[in-house]
């Protein structure tokens, strides 16, 4: 006995403005959310809301060398979640510094992002230059062929390892050398 075929899944047609060659976000969705800025807002609300005051983060009275590996491990497990927002700012600061001081990398990122934006503005049927027609797919392939050597010569891999190393030393060093605070019922009591 043959089984009945499943009915097709209904799909919403993409919404686009009259005369526009790219789909627009639905009217109930903010344009900032469509651009990914909703992720930034969510990141700010979730991760950066746990920022500790900088006086607590840079409290030099609580800095000391751990006496053993067990003490260092307990400090790491206490301080990493406690200062998570502050450590995220340290990581973003190191990343911004390393990208801003590498002008070739900044040019490569700008060239790639700008090229991708310009390609997104090309209609799907492409455009004609002389007797040749170039589609967006061909333009993206050309952009990749140019961007890979640009990123290679701008020492992107070295910059990534610098960011990882500098962040690890800064964050893990701070977390291991910062003594655990007094949390609990007696934290606000002054002796």
From TrEMBL:
Membrane found in the keyword field: yes
Q: Which InterPro entries match?
A: Prenylated_rab_accept_PRA1 (IPR004895)
Bilayer topology annotation: Multi-pass membrane protein
Provide ranges: composition bias, Pro residues: 1-16
- Record keyword Ribosomal protein present: no
Q: Where are the transmembrane segments?
A: 89-119, 139-164
Q: Where is this region: Disordered?
A: 1-26
- Identify the Pfam families for this entry: PRA1
Q: Which GO terms describe its cellular component?
A: Golgi apparatus; membrane
Similarity comment: Belongs to the PRA1 family.
Q: What is this protein called?
A: PRA1 family protein
Which species does the entry assign this protein to?
Answer: Dissophora globulifera
Q: What is the lineage of its organism?
A: Eukaryota, Fungi, Fungi incertae sedis, Mucoromycota, Mortierellomycotina
